[in-house]
Amino acid sequence: MDATTVTARLDAVSATDSRELDRVCEQVAEDLMREGSTPPFTLDSADFAADPRLICADRYWRLRFLELPTVRTAAACSSWLVEHAPREYRTEILEKWSLGYAFITKDSVESGRELSRATEDIVSDDSASGDAAYFATLYHAGKLRSNFWSDELHQFLDSSLLALAAGVHRRNPLFVALRSFAAFGSPVITAEHAVGLLDEAWDSPERTRHVVDICLNGIQFAVPFDGYGELLRSRAEQAVREYPGDHIFEYRLASGQHMCRENDAALVTITAALRHLPALGSRGSHKLLQEQYLSKRDEILQGRMRAEFDAAYELRAQEREAEHRRKWQELETQLRRGAERQDRANAELQETSRAAAVRAVELVAVFTATIAFAMGSLQVSLQGSLTLRDRLWIIAGLGGGLALFALLVVGGTWLITRRRT
Predict the structure, then answer these.
(1) Burial class of residue 93 in the structure, from the number of CB atoms within 10 Å of its CB (0-12 exposed, 13-18 middle, 19+ buried)
(2) Sorted alphabetically, which keywords does the UniProt record give (predicted)?
């Protein structure tokens, strides 16, 4: 199939009919694959939704990677892209292709020996610019990232010959973002180091949408550390403001809000992500994202229900505690009143005992005086030759003395036992 025929078929299809556009681009890509030819046209945009040439090239290289998912294919794709895409569109296409093709072929990670052999050929063919090595590095790193192999990704980016061959491209924010992703997911790298790499990639003036996505993805699946939920929420809020309507960033924001227990806000955000999720591309990819978002929505709903249950349980616990405190106060009041009554009863009993003892002493004194008077008066009356008048005087004196004795005993007892303030 000559270049003129291919270009004519693609330019003839209308971008308004998405189904026809998809069918024609897929058919042309399959025809090129069967003939063993690469797309013969030049790209003049980075519009993956409406540019027939870019869509066809995307389908073609997708078929190539599915057939042979290796870094050699990535190097060949990079070489074609350098020749057929202007520099102003190249970065967007390179990042989308390298990471996207890595995701769909993540089940075919090459071994260290295979990488070493392929690296020798890639470096010898592209030792000057390092573009092919950079594309191949992103492709293999994208596989490791898609499988969440953080330690392997960290080792590959830091020390592999292929990554080192990328040269100046190692300072690109996308490369730094992948290093940040690896650091966040590794249990042996500190969170401070990961956040430092994140800030370096995030604050770069060359930051792209793919850089933002990898940064947020790294925070979301990081080994938990203090404040990582707040970090994801704040960065995702910036991404949603910068890219309004982007369903992936809305999904990341919903995840951050869910981590911060802002379940009502998270429910609104994940619903927006589902609404903005387009039914474009392969049906499997759309279905996968939809299931992922629905699963997150279920988690948020469950978290919301747990929060409501915990709040109700906490309220009931507070009510029970208040009731127990009230009953305890009532019991303390009753005990205090009982103690006061007991104290009064003890005081009354003590006073009664004291008064009884005093009365007993007084009674003994009076009784003693009475007996002494009786005995004395009887003796005076029955003995002697005194006259009646003298006897009466003696008896009166004896009685008066004994009465005075009784009064002294009673008065002394009262004086000794009387209350003192």
Answers:
(1) buried
(2) Membrane, Transmembrane, Transmembrane helix
Q: What is the DSSP letter of 171?
A: G
Predicted local distance difference test score (pLDDT) of residue 11: 83
Closest CA relative to residue 162, chosen from 199, 233, 211, 113:
113
CA distance 383 to 375: 12
| Residue range 357-395, pLDDT digits in tens | 666 766 676 667 677 666 666 665 555 566 767 667 776
- Contacts by 352-357, CB closer than 8 A, 24 or more apart: 354/417, 357/417
Q: What is the distance between the alpha carbons of residues 38 and 61, in angstroms, rounded to a whole number?
A: 9
Q: Is 96 exposed, middle or buried (0-12, 13-18, 19+ CB in 10 A)?
A: middle
What pTM was estimated for this model as a whole?
0.74
- How many other C-beta atoms lie within 10 A of the C-beta of residue 270? 27
136 contacts 163 by C-beta, under 8 angstroms: no
- pLDDT at site 417: 65
